[in-house]
Amino acid sequence: MRSFRLLIAHVVTNQSTMAAKLRALMLTSQEKSQYEALGYAVVDPGLSMTEIDAAAKDVIPLFRPETSPADTSGSVVAFRDASRVQDAWTVSNAVKRVATSPALLRILQELYQREPFAFQTLNFRVGSQQKVHSDTIHFNAMPSGFMCGVWVALEDIDMENGPVVYYPGSNRLPEVTLRDVIGRKEDEPSPTTRATAQFRGKPIDP
């Protein structure tokens, strides 16, 4: 059973452009095995810092002021408020280039043996501070098991400014969908609670 899995993009800045491009197109057998077993891999997205900075520059003006309500009109992007912007790729070529990085698409094709495509971008001003969750309850592939989240930091990340959190091996937990949740009694443990009660992984903070 393959539930939600994650690629964490690590931009390499200390090697030649050609070397970076060649490395980004390859996964070692160890990386492939880790992805299958633990559900995540740290990969080189084959992007330059110039491309990363351009995406960050385009996104910043899209955030709403702290005192303004969320914009759900779709007149600018699908959704935006003070902390997140959905589908900035529709108005920013720089964000689109990050989301459709040839290296990332090539890696996904190698891992899933299917032609991948990006269907949504989410940009956060700061770490979302959401509780640990699985995105498959919100959107998924048909058949299931073929959706992958790709996390790309647009600034230097450490433990103090909102790193992504992932539980290694949680990709092997039972997949939870809205169908599993709807109709559940208020005092009944959720499918997620029952599944994680049997799971003893530790989160990663790369």
- Backbone CA Rg: 18 Å
Category from helices, strands and their pairing: alpha/beta
The biggest sheet, with number of strands, parallel, antiparallel or mixed sense and barrel status, is: 3 strands, parallel
* Strand content range: 5-15%
- Listing every helix as H and every strand as E from the N terminus to the C terminus, the arrangement reads EHHEHEEHHEEHH
Tally of contiguous helical segments:
7
How would you explain this protein's 3D organization?
With 206 residues, this protein is α/β, with parallel strands linked by helices. It is built from seven helices and six strands; from the N terminus they run βααβαββααββαα. The chain has a three-stranded parallel beta sheet with strand order 2-1-6. It has a three-stranded antiparallel beta sheet with strand order 3-4-5, with no helix packed on it. The protein is globular, with a radius of gyration of 18 Å.
SSE layout and pairing:
Layout: E1 5-9, H1 17-24, H2 29-38, E2 40-43, H3 49-59, E3 79-80, E4 84-86, H4 93-99, H5 102-112, E5 122-124, E6 148-152, H6 178-181, H7 191-196
Parallel strand pairs: 1-2, 1-6
Antiparallel strand pairs: 3-4, 4-5
Helix pairs in contact: 3-4
